[in-house]
Write a structure and sequence with these properties.
This protein is an alpha+beta fold and about 260 residues long. About 25% of the residues lie in helices and about 40% in strands.
């Protein structure tokens, strides 16, 4: 084999390795999380409740306390009384805030980037059949995608999470449910409130699906947001050809009391 053929073969191998590495780097071959749905969130909390029941059985004291709390919540739901303050319950699969956006990368093509954080806190207040107050806070500086380099870049680009580490939603108009839904029944509502991202606050109408799942209330929704509305610039990188000017904001939250 001639020297030139060896050089060409080595160069081709390097190109393949680099292309494959870039594809992995930017998440082309990564599994993209499914879009948030009420069905997936309820399934997640139901599975957690079953696992928690097994764990609680190993601790008599904890089981007694937790069981009482669950019984109280379930009894109140059965009586149609959900009044009170509900607090966000951490859950790896049911509580998160995130975004979905399309990028086009040179020599690779377009794909969907999904970023999520499970660092969500907040409360929801119910009075009879009305949701009178809701406030949610998401830690944007813990957003993760399929690539750590991209995540770190968000600290100084686009979302600039180093400067704006939190996003919030505050309900500004009560939500009238009409009646308390039966357990397992999905209702669709619109939450009108102030959404703050990147230090900019705008009034939005956030469509949500909600369901009573045991002693929890689960809410899931999606909202299309224009990046320019929140003064969010597009990322700058030699490998990025283009990024959509809008993103799909995803919300999945479990509340307990």
């Amino acid at each position: 084999m001639s020297r030139n053929r060896l050089i060409l073969g080595a160069a081709a191998a390097i190109v393949v390795v680099v292309a494959g590495g870039l594809a992995w780097w930017f998440g082309v071959f990564s599994d993209t999380p499914e879009e948030a749905t009420i069905e997936a969130a309820v399934e997640a909390v139901t599975a957690d409740d079953e696992d928690g029941g097994d764990d609680a059985a190993a601790d008599d004291g904890a089981a007694a306390d937790d069981g009482a709390a669950v019984d109280d919540g379930a009894a109140a739901a059965a009586d149609g009384d959900l009044s009170g303050t509900w607090t966000v319950v951490p859950d790896e699969n049911a509580t998160f805030v995130g975004y979905r956006i399309n990028e086009v990368l040179s020599s690779i093509g377009d794909f969907e980037v999904v970023g999520r954080t499970g660092d969500v806190s907040g409360t929801m207040v119910l009075d009879g059949t009305s949701i009178t107050a809701t406030e949610l806070v998401a830690a944007m500086d813990t957003l993760t995608t399929d690539n750590g380099i991209r995540d770190r870049a968000l600290g100084s680009q686009s979302l600039e999470t180093n400067q704006f580490p939190e996003a919030t939603f505050v309900l500004t108009s009560p939500i009238e449910l009409g009646e308390i839904p039966a357990e397992g029944e999905t209702i669709s509502v619109t939450a009108t409130g102030d959404l703050t991202i990147h230090g900019v606050t705008r009034s939005v109408d956030f469509p949500l699906d909600a369901q009573l799942a045991g002693d929890l209330i689960v809410a899931v929704g999606q909202l299309r947001v224009l990046l320019a509305d929140y003064d969010i610039g597009l990322p700058s990188s030699p490998s990025v050809v283009s990024v959509e000017d809008n993103a799909l904001l995803e919300l999945s939250v479990a509340f307990g009391r």
